[in-house]
Amino acid sequence: MTIQLYNTATRRKEAFEPIDEGNVRMYVCGPTVYDRAHLGNARPVLVFDVLFRLLRHVYGENAVTYVRNFTDVDDKINATALARKEAGAAGTLEELVAERSDETIGWYHADMDALGALRPTHEPRATRFIAQMVAMIEDLIAKGFAYENDGHVLFRVREYVAYGTLSGRSVDDMIAGARVEVAPYKEDPMDFVLWKPSDDELPGWDSPWGRGRPGWHIECSAMAYELLGDTFDIHGGGNDLQFPHHENEIAQSKCAGHGFANVWLHNEMLQVEGKKMSKSLGNFFTVRDLLDQGVPGEVIRFVMLSTHYRKPMDWTEKKREDCTKTLMEWLNVLQKHGYTPKMVARLKDKGLWVSDAEFMGVLANDLNTPGALARVHVLAKARTAEALVPFAHALETLGLVTDWSVLDLSPSQNDAMPDWVDAVIERLIEERGAARVAKDWAEADRLRDVLNAAGVQVTDVAGTASWLPGPAFDPSKLEALR
Ligand code: AMP
Ligand code: ZN
């Protein structure tokens, strides 16, 4: 199966060809850890989680390396720490800064876990990669792409001729459109900071340019290089990061001589009344607010995936209600057909856990999650437990079910499978197998009849027998064999 991805850098949908099929590599810009994630911040997490799951499906669970960083050097983290210190908190300012980052990372993990997002392979914290950033900056200075002035190191944007290619803008257009900061230590207002001085109390590191801290952009370039190597497959993030953050990452990495990312993916914004949800506009609510109101993480995820990642979207009450209802119905379909956590585990074990090719094809077409969900609606109409396997598989691939024990949590009262059934049927199948080995055909046939009478469908895959409840499944017929 070929995955098609819309590459921002070429403005085309392209067939995805990994550099190394045995190690597909993806970097996504992570959060600045100064406060709770708002719902907009969850959008890239979910979009790239679906891509991570799809890549793992196509190339293998252990064949994908996904890096998402934590930016834990930032004025906003410092400001919170300072406020705490002024309010009488114990510890140095530096300790309070670390405490704030740790606390925020803990929240982030709890909130994103609740949305069913898999943890990336690596979640580097910027403060642990300062040496690599310093080395990269020194290299850029040596090559003439950066200069030091008064404790600051700046990148000479006009030295990189391809600057602006990702967003398709010229340097002059960007100067006109952006709020570029004019500062006495800059040769050109367009130049951006690689390193800046830090005062004595705030976090800082010794460097050839004095005690200071890195700029935001160099963090991603250095961590991506360290963890993914010279060239990697996919770089992702929200489209608000295209300029200047991603343009700057590209400029730094390319000028350092690295290949950097082949494919650039950008998610559109989550909006509130037509405006980007953001902390600075104050039009936000957090993921935790919703979870605390009793909105399940799966429902938040479902609402997000109902819109294609390259389209802006709104969170609405109506969408929340519709998705809640549909998800309940879908879980009910599985419960009615005898699905239990044990049964799913068994299906996986015995090689019966199969996907729907059409569903996968739609999803692989530039992560068409709304199209994939439309296909799930069709798959949900299957009439037998066996025919529902691709439906259950699709729910898991989208991360709408991450733990099959949900089937136990809200059983549809009358139709739930009693827990003894599994053991009895497994025993009968085993006895039937033993009878066949012993060539005791009469006994094997008798056991088959017992299973048939209870509506159990026995399926053989590669010589291993497994079972599924058939349309006439009636566990009460096995009651006497408990
Ligand atoms: P930040 O901590 O603001 O740098 O954001 C972390 C991630 O969330 C980045 O990938 C942003 O592009 C993304 N992001 C921020 N606001 C929104 C939004 N309203 N909708 C979608 N993504 C967003
Ligand atoms: Zn970044």
Walkthrough of the structure:
Helices cover 43% and strands 15% of the residues. With 482 residues, the protein is an alpha/beta fold. The strands form five sheets. Strands 4-3-9-10 form a four-stranded parallel sheet, with helices on both faces. Strands 5-6-7-8 form a four-stranded antiparallel sheet. A three-stranded mixed sheet has the order 12-11-13, covered by helices on one side. A hairpin with a 2-residue loop joins β14 (456-461) and β15. The chain is elongated. The model has no long low-confidence stretch (mean pLDDT 93). The structure holds adenosine monophosphate and zinc ion. Adenosine monophosphate binds next to α1 and β9.
Question: What topology emerges from the helices and strands here?
Answer:
Elements: E1 4-7, E2 12-15, E3 24-28, H1 39-59, E4 64-68, H2 75-86, H3 93-114, H4 130-142, E5 146-149, E6 152-155, H5 171-177, E7 192-197, E8 212-214, H6 216-228, E9 231-238, H7 242-255, E10 260-267, E11 270-272, E12 275-276, H8 287-292, H9 297-305, E13 313-314, H10 317-336, H11 341-349, H12 357-364, H13 369-379, H14 389-397, H15 406-409, H16 420-437, H17 441-453, E14 456-461, E15 464-469
Parallel strand pairs: 3-4, 3-9, 9-10, 11-13
Antiparallel strand pairs: 1-2, 5-6, 6-7, 7-8, 11-12, 14-15
Helix pairs in contact: 2-3, 4-6, 6-7, 9-10, 12-13, 16-17
The structure holds adenosine monophosphate (AMP) and zinc ion.
Short structural summary:
By secondary structure, the protein is an alpha/beta fold. It is built from 17 helices and 15 strands.
